[in-house]
Design brief:
Length: 184
């Protein structure tokens, strides 16, 4: 959910992902977060965001991240949109093993969108969280408008953890999703 003010934008999100095959659960993930953006002018903005994740099959009881920083809108046209942002943050991890860790980090992200047709848009977002470990997130999505209020969003997400928890079966997760989006 995103809503706009004169010089600001506010977003909140949440997701539940579960996968089962042959009555055996192989994935269970819960996420929630929020973000604000304050526009300094047409091309520069400040942002803050907080997120929480619980990923049962990748070793995390919870992972909380708080970041803030500066963003620059490079392109803002009717066809292409490109922005870059970066800033400091903090990450608090609670693992299945009982170990807890809180560390400072650096955050960077870029987001590009391209309007293919009047009703079809493709987006690519990449973000990185880094300290002695690196977490990279990439999401490629295709948004197709059904009418003025509804659209269909198909996305492919890749998450790579340079140093995953000991109980994690692998360092890279992929998710394919199809979402119905309603515009208020």
């Amino acid at each position: 959910m995103t809503w706009f003010d004169n010089d600001a934008a506010y977003s909140m999100w949440g997701a539940v992902n579960n996968a089962t095959s042959s009555n055996i659960r192989s994935s269970e993930k819960y996420q929630a977060g929020g973000r604000n953006r304050y526009n300094l002018n047409d091309h520069n903005y400040l942002f803050g965001q907080a997120s929480w994740l619980s990923d049962r099959f990748n070793g995390y009881d919870s992972r909380s991240i708080l970041t803030g920083g500066y963003g620059h809108q490079i392109l803002n046209g009717p066809v292409s949109d490109l922005r870059l942002e970066f800033g400091p943050g903090v990450r608090h991890d609670e693992y299945h093993s009982g170990y807890r860790s809180t560390k400072a980090l650096a955050y960077g992200a870029t987001n590009y969108s391209y309007q293919l047709t009047d009703s079809t848009k493709i987006t690519q977002g990449i973000s990185a969280l880094t300290n002695e470990a690196i977490t990279l997130n990439s999401e490629t999505a295709l948004n197709v408008a059904i009418n003025e209020k509804l659209s269909l969003r198909m996305a492919y997400t890749i998450t790579y953890n340079h140093k995953p928890p000991v109980l994690a079966p692998k360092s890279t997760d992929t998710t394919t999703s199809v979402t119905l989006v309603y515009r208020l």
